[in-house]
Structure formats: structure tokens, C-alpha cells
Amino acid sequence: MVLLAGSVIRRYERFSLYNSPYPAHDAGCAIDLYPDDGVAASPVGGEVLRTKRVRCPEQPYAASEDFLVLVECGECVARILHVDPAVEAGDTVAVGDTLGSLVRSGFFGRWVDNHIHVGFRRRGQNYERARGSVPIEPGVEVDGVPWDGTGTVVASGPTHVRLDSPSRDGEGFEALGSDEGYALDGGLPHYADGGVLEAAEGTVSLLGAPVGEVDGRGVRWRDVGVFVDGERATGLSLFASQGAIGAKIVFEDGHGFERGDAVEVGIDPGAESVRLG
Q1: Which of 149, 221, 249, 261 sits most deeply, having the most CB atoms within 10 A of its CB?
Q2: What is the per-residue pLDDT across 45-58, written as a single tens digit (0 to 9) for each?
Q3: What are the chain's domains?
């Protein structure tokens, strides 16, 4: 396991270990870091080993080309994606240095904000395969904030809405909390696996409904349906933030909600999940 220091993570507004359908995130083996200023600041320091162009899925809202940046940092090599590099092999970077410009990658769902993807390999591993990274331990505590499912739409895009609740309950990093108080992470339930940002086990519930089984930090989501005022949603996009933590609701096929709408979210444990990965 690689510890990513709190001093590094606090440079970014939000992070997620599990909110992705791609195998690099399995078991929390990659972290997505969301800057609030749009700057692709390096989360690691060391020597750049290689940069490589990577093809990604064709999407009308995104680039068809991404980039892989490999940085040797101590005993590990960092794999960084979603940055068009302004660095090249042989350069030395420090934490916080600009790596280049953020890429709106075809790997993203339309509702996904620009971010930096980071995974770590032990020396001697294959650095370019999607699988093979080691688990990451974020060096910050994340508190789960309770939510009753209600809120007002404060942001709206073609495939998502963002609510004003739950609102912040304290300082530092917080996340939408399960009924048991766990900080939840991932795409519930549209990505089959998610996580909690602390060690736990047993059943995890949200809004009175059992939504998954947790073992360690990983959660296998149950088949459930997410509804907003009776309208079927794809799911909840979950993350940890030191800014706003209002619920982000995904509608892959669009929705009819606007800013200012007061809504109520419910979870039906008898409905079949909409799975995207």
C-alpha cells in the first residue's frame, strides 16, 4: 500500500478512490484528484521516465486522445493520466509543479469533471498496463455527513444535477455519509464496486435502504434504484471534498430538473440497478 500524504491531497478540492468503472480503480488502487483551479499540479516529485499518447473512447464531449505520464518517485513509479504533458523524459518535477494542461478525456462520463488520475507501481512492474497498481491510502481523515435525501438543485448539466445538501458539517474532507456514518465513495450503484473511506465490514445503508456489503474499504453495491421525485436516475456520484459536498445525481439519458428545483431522493431496494461498468 502507498500512502499519499495529506499535504498532497489537500492541494486538491476533491478526491475519489472508487468513482470509476475502469479496472485501475479496483480495490482503491488509483485516486482521482480534482483541482479547484483547473491547474494540473503534480501530486508526486521525481524524474519523468516517459510520456505516451493513449487512445480513448470516442465521445462527442471529450478528446479522443489522452496521455500517460510516468514519474519515478522513490520506490514507486507514478502513473498519471488526463494531463497533456508540458514535461518530457529526463525532467525533474516537484509536488505542485505544473505537469501540463488537463485533458477532458474520452474515458470520462459526461458528468465527470476534469481531474488527474494517479496510480502507483512497484519498481520492476509493468508501468503501462491498466491493471497492477497497488492500493492507495489517502493521508487524510474523511467524515461522513448524514443526509435525509432532500435538497435544492444548485447546478445542472445534461446528465447530472448537484444539490445543496448535505451541507458541510465541519472542517477538512467530508463525504456523503451512509446511515451508519461511513464516508461513501464511488458510483452508487452504476459502477458495481465502490468504497468507504475507513475500514469497516457488514451492510451499508443509505436513506433507510441497504445498498451494499463492505469488506475492509471495498463495497459491492446491491441492486437498487435511485429515484428523484419519482424519476429514475442512474445513480449517485460520490467523492470526498474539502469544499461543497452536496449530492451529485447522474442521469445518463438526461433529466428534466432545473436550478432552484426542490427535490427528494429515494432508494428502492427492489429495483434493478442501472449498471455502466
Answers
A1: 249
A2: 999 999 999 999 99
A3: 2-138 (2.70.70), 142-268 (no CATH)
